[in-house]
Amino acid sequence: MDVSTFFESVDLQEFPIIGDNSAQTRLGNTIRIFSDERDFPDYSSYELALIGVKDDRSAINNEGCAFAPDMVRKYLYQLNTGPYPIKLVDLGNIRKGHALSDTYFAVSSVVAELLSNNVFPIIIGGSQDLTYANYQAYQSLGQIINIVAVDPMFDLGKSEQELTSQSYLSNIILHQPNYLFNYANIGYQTYFVDQEALKLMKNLFFDTYRLGIVRESLEEVEPIVRNADMLSFDISSVRISDAPGNGNATPNGFYGEEACQIIRYAGLSDKLTSIGFYEVNPSLDHAGQTSHLVAQMIWYFLDGFYNRAHDFPFRNEEDYLKYRVSIRDHKEEIVFFKSKKTDRWWMEIPLPMEQRIKYERHYLVPCSYKDYQTACENDIPDRWWMVYQKLM
Question: Where in the chain is the domain with CATH 3.40.800.10?
C-alpha cells in the first residue's frame, strides 16, 4: 500500500539543529526525515517510524493540540543519541482529512502498513481519540490485543456520545468485530471517575490502577505495560507543574521523571508494537516545557527499545526457571516462569491446547516477584485471577 499520499513533509527550515556540523550526534542529524529536499523514505528498512497527526477536531477543552507534532520534534531533534545505532525514520505529518473519519482512516492505514512491515509506529497527536484509529489498525492483522492507557480518567463518555478524546474507549469496546482482549488504565484519579464506570471496568475484568497506588510502587507498572500491544499516553496524566501545556491539566498526576520511567518500561516490552502521545497543547505551554517532556519521554522509549532482552514469548525453555505453587482450596496449581536473562516473571493460565492457540499471546501473563510471593502466601494474585476469569 502506498501511504505516502497521506503525509506532508517536515519543513527542515523550522529546525536549525539539522545540518549543524557541531551537532552531528543529535537525533535530528542521525535519523531519516521526510522533507521537501528528499523523497518519501522506504520505511520497511527501518525499525521505528515517527508519525505526526495534526488533528484536534475531537479534543475536549484542548483545542490547539494539533500543533504538537512539530513542537515535540523541535526538542526531540536536539537530544543526543544513546549508545546504540538508531534505525528511526520520521515520516512527517499525516494530512488532516476533509472529515475526521478521513484522518482516522489515514492513521489506521498507515499504522497497519507499518506493523505489517515490522516497523514500530510512534504517534505524536493530536487528541487522544486517535487511539481509536490506532486500535483499528490491528483489525487488518486479525490480532486480539491489549491496550494500556496512562490517563487520569477512563474516557468512556456516554454510549450515545460521538467519538471524542474523552469517549474513545466506549467506541473501542463497542466496535464490531471486537478484537480487544484487555484494557488497563494506569494512574486514574478517583474524583474524575464515575463510580458506575468503575463498576463497568470491574465487570469487564479490565485492570485499573489509581494514581496513588501506582506512585507508591512504580516498578509494579512494568508488568502492566509489558502486557500491552499498544499504549496511549494522555499528557494530562502528568501534573500541571511538570506539563502545563494541556487544557485538562490538574495539580495532581505523575511527575515528569515518573512518566519517563513508565515509557522506558514500555520500550523494554517485547510485546508492545505501537505507542501514541496525545493532548500536548503548545498554545498553553510555558517555554515549551510540555513538548520538551514528551521529547524526553520518546528518548526514554528509544532507550528501552534498544535494550530489549527479547525474552517473550518463550524461545527456549532452558532460559527460564519454572515454579509451581499450590493454593489451598484451589484445584489448579499456579505456574510461574522467571527469565534467567532479565529476572522478569510470568504466570501461566491453564488452558486446553485449542484455546492456547487462540490466546497464545495472552495465557502467559506478565507479573512481578510480588505476585509470586502472594501465591506462596496461599493467595491467588489479582492479575492471575482477572485473566483466568476472562479466559474461562
Answer: 4-305
